[in-house]
């Protein structure tokens, strides 16, 4: 292999490694986004349950639940 072929090979190797690193970073970002989405859904469900509990407590305290 002459110098220009070797340089081209090394450039191709570097490009492939950079693409793989980029793919790994995108996977990590996607996983982080999914985790955040799940956490926000859980937080929303907990808030909804607390609000429902508070509403029920008010109804019970005011006699509106009967």
UniProtKB/TrEMBL annotation:
Signal peptide: none annotated. InterPro entries: LEA1/2/D7/KIN2. Residues 1-24, 49-66 have a biased composition (Low complexity). Residues 32-44 have a biased composition (Polar residues). Residues 1-66 are annotated as: Disordered. This is Stress-induced protein KIN2-like. It comes from Rhododendron simsii.
């Amino acid at each position: 292999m002459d110098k220009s072929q070797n340089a081209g090979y090394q450039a191709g190797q570097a490009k492939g490694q950079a693409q793989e690193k980029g793919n790994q970073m995108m996977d990590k970002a996607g996983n982080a986004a999914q985790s955040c989405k799940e956490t926000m859904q859980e937080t929303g469900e907990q808030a909804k349950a607390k609000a429902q509990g508070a509403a029920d407590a008010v109804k019970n305290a005011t006699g509106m639940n009967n």
